[in-house]
Amino acid sequence: MFNAYENDTSANEPKYIETTTPEGKVNFYSMTLEDLKAFLKGKGKEQFRAQQIFKWVYEQRVTDVEKMSNLSKSFRQEIPDILSFDLPPVLKHLKSIDGTQKFLFDVKGGNSVEAVLIPSDDRLTLCISSEVGCNMACKFCFTGKQKLKRRLTTEEIVGQFMQVHDRLEPGQRISNIVFMGMGEPLDNPEAVFKSIEVLHSPWGMMLSRRKITVSTSGLVPQIKLVADAKVRLAVSLNGSNDEIRSRVMPINKKYPLKQLLDACREYTRVTKDRITFEYVLLKGVTDQMEHAREVVQLLKGIPSKINIIPFNEHPGSGYERPSDEQIEKFHTELIKLGAHVLLRRTMGRDIYAACGQLTTVKDRPETMDISNSKIGGTNERHFGSGQPRL
Q1: pLDDT tens digits for 285-300?
Q2: CATH class of the domain comprising 22-84
Q3: Structure pTM?
Q4: DSSP of 44-106
């Protein structure tokens, strides 16, 4: 019942194994409420105890079982032998000049992942990782240079949220989560969607499904799972035609634009939600005016908004960030064409916490000089011709 992925050195793909500690305990954060009910029933305990424990841990943030006063003394003595409340340790915590925070988590076996807390005027968004490395090999992404080592478990995903939550200042609350960190979320669907259930649950962290976004590079068959989970969908487009997209995103060779956009249309039909299309501006590759026109034609008839993301540099990328003038020109062209468009503010770039910069490869840089760019230095959000904000 309680499973996770682990790297199998005898095969190309990670395999599924049971998630338990060496002592045979099950990690509490790996379970939904129904999982815990079934687990306790198997131990001969009343199922309502699951709700009591969930309330202590998620609402009260109490993991010391001796403080769980509505549980019997004998049951409190048993809990440490069957349940673990361990969270992935924070190895490093960096803060950007713009308020963005990056956390490096230890996920055992010499592996680590990064998560990013992004502040804005009306929300506090946590960007969560789902894998150590990534198999998608997107050319503009630092994570893409780090081959997949293993997929994260449910408790490691939920654990990122809880560790950051526990470090918030008084009065702060994580309002949104986006699965846009390291890894392809739809390449690890069981753990990702199970973690969403935990974080959404009224017995868990009570996050609205509409405040949860799952991003994909284009795993077409799994897009249905996002609709089934009733959460938001973001798609990394990053190419205005198949030739360009296949060059920068190898997944397009398997699932070309027609298949991807057909799946997107079906998502909007079923959910009645808009899709966010992420579009990275690469100098001389995706930032020309003809590309803007092609993008608008591609997305015609799909309820959506376009997030323009100026490329965020990292060592060995082979790509450059367009000039601020070219970024503004591209943005203006999309608006003129009637697109609902947002020029995303670049956050955390100075600590390698911006979109496409997350990695845990050896000798990764920790800081960079961003004084040469104005784009991303303001808190403005730019929307197209009279379109409503989402």
Answers
A1: 999 999 999 999 999 9
A2: mainly alpha
A3: 0.87
A4: T--THHHHHHHIIIIIS----GGG-TTS-HHHHHHHHHHEE---PPEEEEEE-TTS-EEEEEE
